[in-house]
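The instructor's notes for this session suggest beginning with a concrete chain rather than abstract definitions. Hand out the sequence below and ask the class to guess, before any prediction is shown, which regions might be ordered.
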Amino acid sequence: MTHVFRLLLVTGLLSACSKDDRITVVVYSPHGPDIGKEFEKAFETENPGVDVQYQPLPTADILTRVRGESANPSCDVWWGAPSSTFAIAADEALLEPYRPDWLAHVDEKFHDREDRFAPHFTIPQVIVYNRDRRSADDAPTSWDDLASDAYAGRVVMRNPPPSGSMRGAFSWLVAWKAGNDPANTKAGFDYLRAVHRNTKSYGAIPKELFEAIKRDKDDVVGVWNLADAIFQRDRYEYPFGIAIPAEGVPVVIDCIALVKNDRRSPARAEAAKKYYDFVTSIESGRKLMNGHGRILIRGDVPAEDLPSWHAEYAYEPLPVDATFAATNADAWMSEWEAKVKPLEHGGS
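After discussion, reveal the predicted structure:
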């Protein structure tokens, strides 16, 4: 082996080792790779000794993974899912209590009493249509429109079970139609059955929903979250018009948490908290609001930092008991899968 070859070999090994010596922080998140890569790069720039491994996954898959890995967790930070999903994980002792300083600026009704997860975004669910095919005057004005004969075969949805946002939206719609009465949930499911009959297709991934609204000649409308609809419109030029139903909208509370891991080294635990604090900071919030259409729940956001569309799409929440909707979301989704989804609907 020549001297030059030995030198190159040693240099390559040292380079590989130096990278491997970084502290790993694994992040599971339903937020898209565009958010993941941006904040991975920004955090690593400020913290070169940390290697962030961002893994975008559907909400349901994250819960399944965190459960399956509980004996030897891989994930450090779980960033994004409805409060109802985090509550399930918290009750199964899968999350580690942590109270960030900014939580003081969030209404206590949104707190987990044991600080096992924290609310980060509000995610209002709205009706999205193709503004190249339909004017704002012809857009739906009520959630009841989606269940009417006028929209038979002209509704598209993201498949609800794996989607935290859709699970949250459906639970709010059931609670709304039930009048927040546990004895009247039949009214909520009667509504979901009517919408299901009108549904042309259920997209396995969000892009299938977006493409259907963009391309379908039947002039379909869909349900999606306001923040991402605006982001997809502005970043990727989807021709989305947004309708805010008069009754109000479901509002899913998107959260963040540290995954419990008693074997995690102190250095890795500290790095995980740094990442958590980094992505939930006001500075990151500005990027998330203005670059990705997210809406921070914290009340200390300066007015000048709010995105330009914030006032344009003013909304009121549906008159729903959020706790009632959240605590029943999982059971209602199971009921929808068993009793509604198998019914014939407007799709092929």
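Then share the key points. Residues 147 and 217 are 20 Å apart (CA to CA). The domain at 123-251+310-339 is CATH 3.40.190.10 (D-Maltodextrin-Binding Protein; domain 2).
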